Description:
Elements: H1 18-28, H2 35-55, H3 58-81, H4 87-112, H5 116-143, H6 167-191, H7 203-209, H8 214-226, H9 233-240, H10 242-254
Amino acid sequence: MSKLSAEEKFIDLSDYGRPAASAIAGGFSKTSVTPVHVTLMFGVCGLFASWLIFQGYYATAGLFLILKSILDAADGELARVKNTPSYTGRYLDSVFDIILNFIILFTIQRVTGQPIWMMLLAFAAIQLQGTLYNYYYVILRQKSSGGDKTSRIFETETPTALPGEKQWSVTLLFKTYLFFYTLFDRIIYRLDRQASESHYFPKWFMSLLSLYGLGFQLLIMAVLLSLGFIHWILPFFIWYSVGIVIFIGIRKLFLK
């Protein structure tokens, strides 16, 4: 079940786990398992992957990072299958993602003995990459006739709880989301304020941009871990951010 209409759907390289996520959602569709339960599952997978890295089981850790990515897609898929969209799930998903990203990178830094500044810079780089992808993707979804609306281009006001969720949990998670993401959102917005006024984002552009999606970032980590190149992970994601300038430049020059 796509977040976009059929006409606007593009090849999302970060969404390679969608078939497995759809199967998982289908298996849970007639059960009492909720999307939030699946979100908790991917949180456990991320923590376990970090523990495996610390213990030196790099290839197995890579498999759990991929499983985490699949479950990360399955929670939203289950919400669509059950027709139970929620802001609680949307913000909990994002909060878990950023916390797990920090823990995974911190674990890599401790294992490799690389400077802490490199880890912090790699963390900031990963978050800015993902923020740019999400920024453009949410704009596309908002313009789409078939796009879901629980994600907003500008997160400035506490949303009203949807049926089936509590307002207090939405408010708490929204404020937590702002605490973690506001800085990255503001940086990307300042770099491309007029993006929301763009008439379209072509499929080829979004497909290339999906290289910055969290799913693809985790896949890169998994591959490097499996190959034993754990020392490459932090410097790779720092240099990988060069593409941010390229993508924004293309958007400003050619996709007005």
